[in-house]
Amino acid sequence: MLPNVLRPNATDHVPVLAEEVREALAVQPGETVVDATFGAGGHSELLAADLRGKGKLIAIDRDPSARAYFERFRKQTAVQGRFLRGEFSVVLEQLASNGVRADAVLFDLGVSSMQIDFPERGFSYAVDAPLDMRMDPNSELSARELVNESSERELTSIFRQFGEERYARQIARAIGRRRREQPFERTGELVDTIKSAIPAPARFGDGHPAKRVFQALRIAVNDELGSLEAALPAALELLRPGGRLAAISFHSGEDRIVKRFLRTQEHGCTCPPDLPVCVCGHEPSLRAISRRAIRPSAQEIAANPRAASARLRAAVKAGDD
């Protein structure tokens, strides 16, 4: 049983890049909006206000605790709302195949405040808790299985690829030594092992010494990058011509996937570059709203430090509005 699912006011959720998202999506009354990562509903509340009581908002989240936040959201807003629990790439594909069309789709990627702020979920390195990190508690793979059963080489790759951890190999070796004596069960045990593997001067550098490893494990446990790769084409199919797509990334891997997808869809033509003329006939399907990622202001970062690494990219689907 998942604790805290009935405490929707327990976390102080501040939506990142809120005004920038509203400007990019330009929601109008009567439209259909899809929040593919509903979380605690912060962005949805703002977008629902732009619907002005006329329209529909579809909320998607794999975390069952999001349903309590959605019920609060539905009571506080006048728009027609619908909550769909599941991994967003799967749900978006199902919606598109069922003929649903949207005017705006939003992704707010990464871990949500409601997950970090409930220590028992195992996402935080700051509090000792069971080693879990599953966004969907019904998923088979947790951080405990990943840490205890992956080879040292696999762990090194995970820490480097998803966490850009400089001491990935040393940490993986330390984990291997520790688990041969006793398997990992709690986040505190993993934090202590990470600290012991990092040279003393590096422990006092850029943030908490376990930050990058915990990020890497969370991304791997929830297959966040693989899900995003599959979700973006589904979101594009779901959009009506003139519809808007926006994605907030907090990790360089996420941002690269979004950037590459938008650039590919903007280009259209898939012919080899040495062909003098296009023969594929593919037309551009998206137009980027901004050539560069939109970043939070210094004022926002000061008020909400979690926004520091946020990057927003947005585009409009080709065709008549």
**Weakly predicted, low-confidence segments:** 1-11
Counted by DSSP, the helix tally is 13
What is the approximate shape?
globular
Approximate strand percentage? 5-15%
Question: Could you characterize the architecture of this molecule?
Answer:
- This protein has 321 residues and is α/β, with parallel strands linked by helices.
- The chain folds into two domains: 18-114 and 224-317, 3-Layer(aba) Sandwich (Rossmann fold), CATH 3.40.50.150; 140-221, Putative methyltransferase TM0872, insert domain (DNA polymerase, domain 1, Orthogonal Bundle).
- Helices cover 42% and strands 14% of the residues.
- It contains 13 helices and seven strands.
- A seven-stranded mixed beta sheet has the order 3-2-1-4-5-7-6, sandwiched between helices.
- Helix 2 (42-51) links the parallel strand 1 and strand 2.
- The chain is globular and about 60 Å long.
